[in-house]
Amino acid sequence: MLPTRRPRLVAQRREGEGRAACAAEAQRAERLKARKAAEAIERDRARKRRAASPLVRALETAGGWVLSILGALAVSLVLTWLLRHPQELDSLTSAVRSILRVK
User: Fold this and answer.
1) What is the pLDDT of residues 45-98, one digit of tens each?
2) Half-sphere exposure of 20 (CA within 13 A, CB side)
3) Angle between helices 86-100 and 54-84 (to 10 degrees)
4) Residue 11, Cβ neighbours under 10 Å: how many?
5) DSSP structural state of residue 102
6) Are residues 82 and 92 in contact, defined by beta-carbon separation less than 8 angstroms?
């Protein structure tokens, strides 16, 4: 009777070991997924911290001011040049009127 039980016990033990190995692999996969999610969250938090630093905000604001001033300077130069050259201003206005079909 003992020899007939042994193959079944061996099969049950192997099946249990197989299930344990699958469970351990699933647990490792879950831990890996959780770790990657935690790292992604930490990277996002670090990016927000860097973006929210006063120096970065000041540089962005200063850059905006510089671009605004340069744009205003360019518009001022163009308008000054057009006012000093009335023929070009007239040809430009007539071209715009012809494009817009305004009389």
Assistant:
1) 888 877 777 777 777 788 889 999 999 999 999 999 999 998 998 998 999 999
2) 6
3) 100
4) 10
5) -
6) yes
